[in-house]
Design brief:
Elements lengths: L13 H34 L3 H6 L5 H5 L1 H4 L7 E9 L6 E10 L4 E7 L4 E2 L2 E2 H21 L5 E6 H11 L2 E5 L3 E7 L2 E7 L2 E5 L1 H13 L5 H14 L2 H5 L1 H11 L1 E2 L3 H6 L1 H9 L5 E4 L4 E2 L2 E2 L1 H11 L2
Parallel strand pairs: 1-6, 3-12
Antiparallel strand pairs: 1-2, 2-3, 4-5, 6-11, 7-10, 8-9, 13-14
């Protein structure tokens, strides 16, 4: 086929001409679509503040959808203070003591770890426990701090491990590696933990807390570990089995928490379990002068646990 009849002339076949005409038609259609789309968007922008509002409606925003589950949860208020006591298997030696608050007003957990050697009016926590067990220690600490401790929970070591293992494991980002073996007689324990994220079970949890309280005299890290545990243990998964877990809890520990207390806390438990990622956490650090809490530390602890 001859392409050039004369210099400068371009020969176009009939089939190519048809193709070019089709392209022009398509371009015109595309231009019309673009113009109509722009006009449509401009019109919507005058009426709707966002694309989400157009699809969902005027009364529901993107943030509304994100918190819809939260808004459907029960409304709760009030604060409950708990005294956790962990002992050896003979229930004679106190390993550590923790104050824990579930704050329904602010959706928060607060934790303060205390040494068993803490002197309360010249008597150590361990001695007070020996004389009257958990109820006696609850009363004395309530009088000492000046805020109400509602419940006490006393676990021996093996029961604590068994129960927390039923709640699951959790990730704790350890700031340092720890290798330690200690304790006496039948009450020995071992800590083996690497630096970085560690998956802790019940035995790891209680042993690492015991190590920092009794060997390192560091009460801040046990607070942090327990806060990680609480925000993982109090979860939707465990909420589904909460009644069975409570039956095990009652059987495994000594406590003044009753079945009625559990039933009355259903709404609060639901909120904390279903919004665990949105729970605020606070660590109240205990500071000592010898075996006595400093006056400033006592005031700070009061500030966290007052209701």
């Amino acid at each position: 086929m001859k392409i050039f009849k004369n210099r400068g002339d371009i020969y176009i076949s009939k089939s190519k001409g048809i193709k070019s005409a089709e392209e022009r038609v398509l371009l015109i259609i595309l231009a019309i679509i673009v113009i109509l789309t722009i006009a449509f968007v401009v019109m919507l922008s005058q009426k709707y503040s966002s694309v989400a509002e157009f699809f969902v409606g005027e009364d529901i925003s993107v943030s509304d959808m994100a918190v819809d589950d939260m808004e459907s949860l029960p409304q709760i208020s009030g604060k409950s203070n708990y005294l956790l006591i962990e002992t050896d298997d003979e229930n004679t030696t106190v390993h550590y003591v923790m104050l824990i608050q579930a704050d329904g007003d602010n959706k928060a957990y607060k934790v303060c770890t205390l040494s068993p050697n803490t002197k309360i009016d010249d008597t150590t926590i361990e001695k007070i426990y020996e004389q009257g067990a958990g109820a006696s220690l609850q009363t004395r600490l309530t009088e000492f701090f000046g805020f109400e401790i509602d419940y006490y929970i006393q676990f021996n070591n093996n029961k604590f491990i068994d129960f927390t293992d039923k709640l699951g494991t959790f990730i704790y980002p350890s700031s340092q590696a720890v290798e330690y073996s200690g304790g006496k007689g039948d009450d020995t324990y071992t800590v083996r933990i690497k630096e970085g994220e560690q998956n802790l079970d019940g035995k790891d949890l209680t042993n690492i807390i015991r190590y920092y309280v009794n060997e390192k005299k560091n009460f801040q890290i046990p607070n942090e570990i327990m806060l990680y545990a609480l925000t993982n243990y109090v979860s939707e998964k465990n909420l589904e089995n909460s009644e069975e877990l409570f039956r095990i809890f009652i059987a495994d520990c000594s406590t003044n928490i009753t079945v009625k207390n559990f039933a009355d806390s259903t709404d609060a438990l639901t909120v904390f379990c279903k919004s665990s990622q949105g729970i605020t956490v606070y660590s109240a650090n205990a500071n000592y002068d010898a075996l006595e809490l400093t006056p400033q530390s006592v005031q700070e602890i009061k500030g966290y646990f007052n209701k």
